[in-house]
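Final paragraph of the annual report: two paired records, presented back to back.
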Amino acid sequence: MLDLLKKMHPQAECELNFQTPYQLLVAVILSAQCTDKRVNMITKDLFAKWGTPETILSLSQEELEQEIKSCGFYHNKAKNILAATEMLLREYGGVVPADRALLERLPGVGRKTANVVYAVAFGGNAIAVDTHVFRLSHRLGLSDAKEPYGVEKDLSARFLEKDWSDLHHLLIHHGRYLCKAQSPKCYECLLTGACLYYKNHNGESKRSK
């Protein structure tokens, strides 16, 4: 399955634009319930002017909200970004820790965000379960867990640790571009032989091409 995913998505990687672990942290916080494309549009201007912890904290919450307003849930996101930044400067000298447990201590940083930053910024092995990973794990029969952490545990048990981060990106790309929530492109997929969704729908997506 991993080999077939790599064949379909040879360039699968994080699609958020960033230059530092801190910028990645901010971008991942912004990406909740928002597309990477929209986040990149926001952070292009945001990071050009306020791309460090020190400069971000020069903004009031209201000012930051105006900068990120188009990403949705901007009030809570601005609040969490400022609170996390304050904690980074106070406890870690402004340096994002390369440790998932420490990352999860930051305001607004849950397990998914911590896993993304740990894997992408620091090269760690982690599976961040977003909506795509959750959906595909069920469609492909890799997990029947009802919540993200359960899916993460099931995937971690099925795949080698060295492949966890690659799997995360591959499933995201597959869910984003082929195995969409609505109208999945089963006719372009190499995984139909193992796909519970395809079997249960009798190839409807293929016939609807």
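The closing record of the year follows.
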Amino acid sequence: MTIRILLADDHKVVRQGLKMFLGLEDDLEIVGEAANGQEAIDQARDLCPDVILMDLLMPEVSGIQAIVEIRRSMPDIEVIALTSVLEDQAVYDAMRAGAIGYLLKDTEPEELNAAIRAAAAGQVQLSPRVAQRLMQEVHAPDNPEELTPREQDVLQLLAQGLSNREIAAALVIGEKTVKTHVSNILAKLGVPSRTQAALYAIRQGMVPEPGSGDL
């Protein structure tokens, strides 16, 4: 399956560089580009990409604001924050907005490719250090709507880092059914992304808090 990608960055040279090496991958397709946050929102609505690579520092509408709008109105689109800013507050803001991942622009191509594929599959990947920091800042409502037993099963597997396909196989259900359960889980918990749902599951003791390796 081809993963459709929208590039959102105000620097043309960055977009060109991303197009160059992402274009080498047979399963990745660049379907559009945006030079500011408003263009990213408009292009997301028109093109319905699977994944957006979003710079956070952009004119007109910031990357953070764009992520909020895209996740609110187009929740099936996953967003990876791709930025030169490495600050705790920027990470927190991006995750609160609904980004499923956060990468620096000097990330190795292989790591970026893997992150895109993971995002498209609905796979949450967090290092223990990042997870522990985020749990202190990202919070679900104190009294969220109760999850059904099957939704709890899906959330537990999601928080363990399984992709939609792997969750479907483990529970013997279809991938579309998994996506429906995930959408219901996000709505009930009042969070915009799988990442925050996974952090909620960790905080509730549904899965062990990561201590070593990736989540």
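The domain at 135-203 is CATH 1.10.10.10 (Arc Repressor Mutant, subunit A). This concludes the annual technical report; the extension proposal builds directly on these records.
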